[in-house]
Amino acid sequence: MMSFNALIAIALGYVLLLFVVAFIAERRAARGHSNWLSSPWIYTLSLSIYCTAWTFYGAVGYAARSGLEFVTIYLGPTLVMVGWWWVLRRLVRIGRAQRITSIADLVSSRFGKSTQLGMIVTVISVIAATPYIALQLQSVTLSFAVFAQIEGGRWGQTDFNATAMWVAVGLAVFTVIFGTRNLDANERHHGVVIAIAVEAVVKLLALVAVGVFVVWGVAGGPAEMMTRIDQSEIELWTQDSSRWISLIFLSGAAFLCLPRMFQVLVVENSDERHLQVASWAFPLYLFFMSLFVVPIAVVGLDLLPAGSNPDLFVLTVPLYEGQGGLAILSFLGGFSSATSMVIVAVIALATMVSNHIVTPIWLSLQANQQAVMSGDVRRVILLSRRLSVAGILALGFLYYRMSGGGTALAAIGLISFTGAVQILPAMIGGIFWRGATGIGAAAGLITGLIVWMWTLFLPSFGVDAIIGQSVMDIGLFGVSWLRPQALFGVTELDPLVHGIMWSMLLNTAAFIVCSLMTFPGPLERLQGAQFVNVYDHSSAAPAWSAAATDAEDLLIMSQRIMGSAQAQALFQQEAIRQNKPGYLPEATPAFLERLERELAGSVGAATAHAMIGQLTGGSNVSVEDLIAVADEAAQILEYSNKLEAKSQEQERTARALRTANDKLTALSIQKDAFLSQISHELRTPMTSIRSFSDILRDNEMSEDDHSRYAGIIYDEAVRLTRLLDDLLDLSVLENGQVELHAQTGAVSTLLDRAVRAAGLQEGALKISREHANEDVVLTTDMDRLGQVFINLISNAGKYCDAQDPHLEIKIHQIAGDHVVDFIDNGSGIAPENEDLIFEKFSRVADGSKAGGAGLGLAICREIMNRLGGEVNYVASNKGAAFRVTLPKAKTAVALEQT
Amino acid sequence: MNRRTTQSVFLQRANYRQRRLRDGAKLVPFLGIILLAIPLAWSSDEVGDKVGASGVLYIFGVWVVLIILTAILSSRLREEPTDTETDNIAR
User: B16 to chain A, minimum CA–CA distance in Å?
Assistant: First the structure.
């Protein structure tokens, strides 16, 4: 028989082997030979940490006590794995897209990278995992004790404690060395994973070997085994259906929610396709792990003396049969189960504690962000991670000591599961329901934690340990509805089922109700969309606006977290990507996002977000920011519109000025021409008057001549007077000194008069009118209007250059106004002169033919303006066309006022 | 919602197979739940008719069926993306 010291030597040798394997794997991974390290088979085997020492040893005990119920613990994960397309695939995709480091990080990241949620989840996980770690220590210690007893030694409490302590210390050393070497959780712990895979094989082999020995070696074959099972005193099937369903649910949910399972399922997953293999290979593993449990239990009960601990049948049956080697293998299997579970659980929990509790607190204590050193955050996080590893193992050890390592501890496995499962509603809700909010998640988690503590965790310490017997019987404060194991008066349920049911129900209810009633923040909604629609867009939407961040500050911060070499490499990479090799990269939103993800891989999403937020001045996008940005953009747009309008106006003004200038120049020329013309006009009659009056003074002429000369003098004087009258008239009109006398009359009469007064030679100009339309009565200054008509008609007479001059006078209505058109059949006015004809002193045609001084149309325009009408030149294809728009009827008073 | 408009109504045979395989993969856990719920209806009222080895065989049998089903479906499933492209070609 094997000596106890030899056993210790074997155990140490095994541990050394694991060290070497882990070390080699790390080395290979560092050199890039990680192909076979990241195969789906390694992934599947790493999932086996689900099978802890509690299941390795305890399943047989469980089967001996409760029959087939033990199998629920394996059936739940089996269902989750075969249903991988539903939840696991989504979780893995999210984990990869968002660089999730732990289950706390998942929840925190989903709900707006909330620090508080990360803390809550971490606290729940630590509380739930501590008893479980204690359970592993107990298993290993007990298995040692079995061998010690065979040597005849009887272990006292101190021996147990010392063993448990040394195991804890050994685990802490291994975990610190291989679990906290690198900071980026996404770089994965190759050494740990490979060591776990080896342990997975060992424990499967051990259990199968014991099973094969029992079935073929002890019972004598499968058929005999079946008979033995049928004859066994174990009641395989208890009729408590609520436990069957609850436990399948519980184990399935725990498979997703346990921090250690999340670590291997999601964080350490290097390829989504591994799930396809693991989806059936892991259930197969579980199948073999549980296949021989019932036979071992049955044979153990048959063989061993009554009262022996069924939890240790896996060890004691081979020992009883004298199979020392098999017993050692079995011991190593149990040892593997315990250590692999503890290592991964502690790594996962330490990551959570350091990322979600220590770092946020440390950062908030660092009020002065100026004095920073490269890698200081990294050092703090690594240190906190190592201390967390030690702390969590110490907690487990303390729990083990306090509970005394008795049977109370064995019962706590499922209770611990129930605690971890409180994260399920927030997690599942978070990845499937966009309406889930952070407040809802926090409410659900806290409710679940309280209910779980009250109904399961606190009572598990035993009656009167924390909750007194009286409270158990009559409830808190005497309220019977608050009895820990009969909440709301539900007394008929098994305590465990009762606890699972109420904690999950109330947790989910609080989660849903609070989610429905609260409104998520902008970042939360952004993350929600990313998580729920992870298949549509696996890349994150930009959460950072292009902020006034210095790349140098970013580099300093990254160095604090990642260490200088790694940070500089990252920045150089980015600079090359931005085509700026040799310089610091621009702090573009895309780069900020990438950097945040990289940092999130080290310190968790919430901390990474907070740290970048600190630098960018909290310039991550909020609705307020968006509104501000939109406002600013709108203002700029408005301003530019204004500018544009102004410049257009200026352009218009310039154009108007140019036109005016052209006009002025033309006018000035005209004026010069006019001045010489008017001088000429004035001089001509004056010369005639002077010379003829000179002749008259001589008195040597006939009576006829005398009167002819006097007539010429008179005519010339009249012409002179008319010229002066016109000038005076225009000046009066322009100065607004004219008096208007309102009269009422018909346009036709006025036209008749105007045609007569135009002084046209008979038959020279043919005038056609439409008398039917001319019956328009209006009240205005008839004399002045008549003056306009006369002017237009006489102009036609003077300037119409057609062979057979003809003037058409038409009256009609345009837009409610009466207009009178005067259209002749001459050649009209050249377009370049259209602007000028209404100006004073302008005369388009040759002056010799005209009787006036070019003031007629200017006077017409002034008169019409005074009367409230218009006179315009209308381009026409016939000849010159003038349009007089008649004034609207005005009241006499209004006219008086003009 | 929008996806409906971008994808054609009818799929190529291969894509159709993939869709149904995916449906099948999604249904496996429900099949498992139903099969595993059956023992709830077993009666052990009569003392002599205890659920013995046959019960063990049933549970483990269901387990094997689930494993084989999942293994078949998983090995045939491939990742989804390309199906919109091929759909367009199929049209």
Answer: 17
pLDDT for residue A98: 80
The one-letter amino acid code at A711 reads G
How many Cβ contacts (< 8 angstroms) between chains A and B?
95
- The letter for the amino acid at A250 is L
CA distance A512 to A559: 41
- The per-residue pLDDT for A36 is 67
Tell me what ipTM this predicted complex has: 0.83
Candidate from A237, A284, A535 with C-beta closest to B67: A284
DSSP 8-state assignment for residue A844: -
Q: Residue A272, exposed/middle/buried by CB under 10 A (0-12, 13-18, 19+)? A: middle
Which among A68, A82, A284 has CB closest to B32?
Answer: A82
Rg of chain A, C-alpha, whole Å: 53
CB atoms B51 and A236 under 8 Å: yes
Q: How many CB atoms lie within 10 A of CB A245?
A: 17
Residues 6+ apart with CB under 8 A from A273: A40, B79
Residue A361 to residue A388: CA distance in whole angstroms: 14
Q: B28, B49, B73: which to substitute to probe chain A, counting the most A Cβ within 10 Å?
A: B28
**Is the CB of residue B59 less than 8 Å away from at least one CB of chain A?**
yes
Sheet with A881-885: list strands edge to edge.
A766-769, A806-814, A817-824, A881-885, A870-873
Judging contacts by C-beta atoms under 8 Å, the chain B residues touching residue A75 are 32, 36, 59, 63
Claim: this prediction has a pTM higher than 0.90: no
| A346: amino acid identity, one letter | V
Q: Which amino acid is at A234?
A: I
List chain B residues with CB under 8 Å of A87.
none
CA–CA min distance A230, chain B (Å): 5
The amino acid occupying position A68 is L
CA distance linking residue A185 with residue A181, whole number of Å: 10
**pLDDT of amino acid A763:** 65
Distance in angstroms (rounded) separating the CA atoms of residues A229 and A7? 33
Strand partners, A807: A767, A824
Structure tokens at A582: 């040799």
pLDDT in tens, A160-204: 778 888 888 888 888 887 777 665 545 567 888 888 899 999 999
Residues of chain A with pLDDT under 70: 1-2, 33-37, 152-154, 181-188, 238-239, 367-376, 404-410, 463-465, 537-550, 560, 604, 606, 610, 613-634, 761-763, 840-854, 877, 889-898
Q: B66, A78 in Cβ contact below 8 A?
A: yes
Name, in order, each residue with C-beta under 8 angstroms of A701's C-beta and a sequence gap of 6 or more.
A695, A709
**Probe site for chain A from B49, B70, B72 (most A CB atoms < 10 A):** B70
Binary contact (B60, A272; C-beta < 8 A): no
Q: Are strands A766-769 and A806-814 parallel, antiparallel or unpaired?
A: parallel
Bridge pairing between strands A870-873 and A777-780: unpaired
| Structure token pair of residue A516 | 């429905």
Tokens of A347: 């790594």
Q: Token pair for residue A285?
A: 């593993």
Instruction: Give the per-residue pLDDT at A282.
Output: 94
Q: How many angstroms separate the CA atoms of A356 and A362, rounded?
A: 11
Q: Which residues of A touch B (CB under 8 A)?
A: 68, 71, 75, 78-86, 226-227, 229-230, 232, 235-237, 239, 241, 244-245, 248, 272-273, 276-277, 279-281, 283-284, 287, 291, 294, 535
